[in-house]
Amino acid sequence: MNAMKNLKLCSLEGRPLPTCIEVGKARIGENFTIMAGPCSVETMKQTMETAIAVREAGADILRGGVFKPRTSPYDFQGLGLEGLRILRKAANEVEMPIVTEVIDPRDIPWVAEYADILQIGTRNMQNFSLLKEAGRSYRPVLLKRGMHSTIAEWLNCAEYILAEGNPNVILCERGIRTFEGSTRNTLDLSAIPNVQRLTHLPVIVDPSHATGRRELIEPMSLAALAAGADGLEIEVHACPDEALCDGAQSLTPEMFKDLMKKLRYLDNALKSYEE
Ligand code: PEP
Ligand code: MN
Q: Residue 21: helix, strand or coil by DSSP?
C-alpha cells in the first residue's frame, strides 16, 4: 500500500502554494519564525525572565509546557491551568503569542482560550482522538514528528487535522530515535527538503529535543535554516541549571541572543543570494 496516496489536503497536488499561518505578527511559512522559551512553566519569575530575554533577542513566539509528558510518573508533570495563566500573563507583558502542548483531547477547548498555537508532542503524534479534536479547534496546531515515525505517518497525522477542517498545521522535526547514544535523538535534517517536496505546510525544527545538548543547538539551528526550514522551536531558560525539565538542552539567554544574531545574518545572506 502506498502510505502517501491519501494525502488529499496536505499534499502539493491539492494546493501547490505554500501555506502561510498568521499568528500575531508572525507569518509562519513566509518569514523564518523563532519560537523560544522554557521547556516547562515553573514559576512566574522564571517564565517572565525568560520571556523578556527571548523577546529582547527577537523571538516571535513564546513556548512553555504546562502538561509535561514525562518518562517517569514521579517527575515534574507541569503546572496545568496555573501554568497556562502564568504563561499568558508573561506573554501579554512582552506582547508575544504562545505555543503550548496539549496531551488530552478534553483540554483542547479551554487551552485554546489561552494559547495561540496548540502543540502535539512526539509521543502523541498518532493519538488520533487528540488529532481529531485539534482539527476541530480554531487554533493553529504544531505537530511534532513521532520519534519512531516515518514521513508518511507524520503527514497522515497532519491530514487527520486538516480533514476535520483546521487548515493551519505546522510540522516540526524534533529528531528520531536511532542507535546513536551520544545525542538524545538524531536530527533528520533531510526531513525538511523531503516534506517540502510533498506538502504545502510549513516545517520547523526543534534542535533542543533533537540533540539534548545545549552546545549542539547553534550548529543544528543554522543547519536547519540553511536546509530551508520555516523556523525553529528552541528551549531557553533564565537559569538552565535550576530547570525542572530539560536543563541540559536549554540555552542561556546569552547563548540565545548570540544564536539569534547568527541566524539573522545567515537568513539575510540566503535572501540576498535568492534575490
Ligand atoms: C516539548 O517541546 O517540550 C516536548 C516535550 O517535545 P517533544 O514532544 O518533541 O519531546
Ligand atoms: Mn522539553
A: strand
Atom of ligand 1 nearest to the CA of 123: 8
Q: How far is the CA of 171 from the centre of ligand 2 (A)?
A: 17
Kindly report, residue by residue over 84-129, the tens digit of the pLDDT: 999 999 999 999 999 999 999 999 999 999 999 999 999 999 999 9
Q: For residue range 220-244, what is the model confidence (pLDDT) as tens digits?
A: 999 999 999 999 999 999 999 999 9
Q: CB–CB of 101/120 below 8 Å?
A: yes
Band of pLDDT at residue 255, cut at 50, 70 and 90: very high
Task: Give the residue-averaged pLDDT of 136-151.
Answer: 98
Q: Please report, for residues 45, 66, 196, 207, the alpha-carbon distance to residue 187 in angstroms, rounded to integers and kept in the order given.
A: 32, 25, 16, 7
* CA of 69, closest atom in ligand 1: 5
- Determine the Cα–Cα distance for residues 162 and 147; give it in Å rounded to an integer: 22
Q: Which residues does a 6 A CB cutoff place in the pocket of ligand 1? A: 39, 65, 101, 121-122, 144, 174, 206, 209
Q: Which of 62, 119, 172 to mutate to test the pocket of ligand 1 (most atoms within 8 A of CB)?
A: 119
The pTM score is 0.98
Please enumerate in sequence order all residues whose Cβ is within 8 A of that of 23, keeping only pairs 6 or more positions apart, or say none: 61, 97, 116, 117, 140
